[in-house]
TrEMBL record:
Coiled coil: none annotated. Residues 24-161 form the YhcG N-terminal domain. This is PDDEXK nuclease domain-containing protein. Residues 186-340 form the YhcG PDDEXK nuclease domain. It comes from Aquincola agrisoli. InterPro entries: PD-DEXK-like_domain, tRNA_endonuc-like_dom_sf, YhcG_C, YhcG_N. It comes from the Bacteria. GO terms for molecular function: nucleic acid binding. Pfam families: DUF1016_N (PF17761), YhcG_C (PF06250).
């Protein structure tokens, strides 16, 4: 055999070789991800321990009251000389705050430190209210939010929007568990906030333009809708007796296993808008659903709604049809917070 003979098929063209390359690539990628997660988990645990050392030193009375305020400054100077800028005054304050906010991290740290980065935790520590902080912590874990997504949901006051329609028990459950989707009503938020479209305040858009903008910003739109939504299509055609109708936006919800139909309205919802959505629900239930699908859900999003008109127009209709408000700009956080505090005060907390 001539050892200098070139193989008829190059090595990198064979199926076995391509499989080897893929295996090595997958192993390497997975290893890097696990390494980053391990480093992050150790960093989070380390920062918590640093905070614990500071608090325990203070609580043991080893620093007199008049020197208490100088402790962080002195630590920052001394530790900075040894380890560099990682021990800045602001970082030490965060480490101390971290321990005080999560004194039981040693027990729950496996979840928190392995799934959330230090940047996530810093954003959580900026929230003073423990109920609100607990909600965003659970929701970030449940929906695997990036830091950017966490910041956006905080800015849009998601917790306050969801809590505004709850009683005391519902608010406390929301804070402890996050938003758990078990039935169609759990999908709802009021108002939905589309500030990510960045539409100038005096500018007026048409329904078609709003629909296009939402599709162009699908990722933040899905984030606003909540966990479990998969985009199916826009202007989805519904043909009945040769007449074509179109649903603005159609999604499928993976958790509830049902279609979710959304119609957009610029003004106030009218009774015929509700009747039209009910028509769409009937069509999807009979023509689009397959075995295993649950009844479809319809959501009409409008700038304004007359509660009494909605009540009468939906009388006797499917409980799967909802009319919710949306707005293009961030909500009034203080008004929502006052509403939350009033609910808790009336409940005797």
């Amino acid at each position: 055999m001539d050892l200098n003979t070139t193989p008829s098929t190059p090595l990198n063209a064979s199926d076995g070789y391509r499989q080897l390359v893929q295996q090595i690539s997958d192993t390497y990628t997975q290893g890097r991800v696990q390494a980053v997660q391990a480093v992050n988990a150790q960093l989070v645990q380390t920062y918590w321990q640093v905070g614990r050392h500071i608090v325990e030193f203070e609580q043991a009375g080893q620093v007199r009251a008049e020197y208490g305020k100088a402790l962080i400054d002195t630590l920052a100077a001394d530790l900075g000389l040894r380890h560099g800028k990682g021990f800045s005054r602001s970082n030490l304050i965060r480490f101390r705050q971290f321990y005080l906010a999560y004194p039981g991290l040693a027990d729950k740290g496996a979840t928190l430190s392995h799934q959330l980065t230090w940047s996530h935790i810093v954003e959580l520590l900026k929230i003073d209210d423990p109920l609100e902080r607990g909600f965003y912590e659970q929701q970030a874990l449940r929906e695997r939010w990036s830091v950017r997504e966490l910041v956006r949901q905080k800015d849009s006051a998601l917790f306050l929007r969801l809590a505004a329609s709850q009683d005391k028990a519902g608010i406390l459950q929301l804070a402890a568990q996050g938003q758990v989707v078990e039935q169609p009503a759990d999908l709802l938020r009021e108002p939905y906030v589309f500030e990510f479209l960045k539409i100038p305040e005096p500018y007026q858009v048409s329904e078609t333009q709003l629909e296009t903008l939402l599709c162009d910003h699908l990722q933040p739109f899905l984030l606003e809708l909540g966990k479990g939504f998969t985009f199916v299509g826009r202007q989805y055609r519904v043909t009945i007796n040769g007449t074509h109708h179109r649903v603005d936006l159609v999604f499928y919800h993976r958790i509830l296993r049902c279609f979710v139909l959304i119609d957009l309205k610029l003004g106030e919802v009218q009774h015929h808008d509700i009747g039209q959505m009910n028509l769409y629900l009937g069509y999807f239930a009979n023509e689009e659903n397959v075995e295993g699908d649950n009844p479809p859900v319809g959501i009409i999003l409008s700038r304004q709604k007359d509660e009494l008109l909605v009540e009468y127009a939906t009388y006797g209709m499917s409980s799967q049809l909802f009319v919710q408000k949306y707005q293009l700009y961030l909500p009034d956080r203080e008004a929502l917070r006052r509403e939350l505090e009033e609910t808790l005060r009336e409940a005797g907390q």
